[in-house]
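Internal tracking record. Fields below are filled automatically when a chain is submitted to the structure queue. Please do not edit lines marked as system-generated. If the sequence contains nonstandard residues, flag them in the REMARKS field before resubmitting.
Queue: standard
Priority: normal
Entity type: single polypeptide chain
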Amino acid sequence: MQAGQARWLTRTEFDEQRAAAKRTARQDGRLAAILSVGLGAVQLVFLRWAEAHMASAPRKVIALSAVLAYLALVSFLLWRMKRNLRVHSPRCPQCGLPLLGMSERIASATGKCDRCGGWVLKQEDR
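SYSTEM-GENERATED OUTPUT FOLLOWS
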């Protein structure tokens, strides 16, 4: 492909990329939900146990550390999910930006990128 030429997507390629992005979001979303709910429940159980068996100062330090670790893990999982979604989503051949959410639906319906106005789909697939 020469510089300045865009490679438009066929309808099949576009739909395959949309399906791959959905699969990725579903898998990553399940993982994030399972870990965040599971670890949140474990923290609550630990805090109940710690109230009865530990002194106040160490309990607070451990609880704060656990909450910060939990927030870091959930933030990482959300960042990873968004990154994977951007990687697997179809991209506009003109501007190179990923077509996510409403942009993806507009490109599917019109064949054009809503950001730059360039064609996303091949002429015969529009």
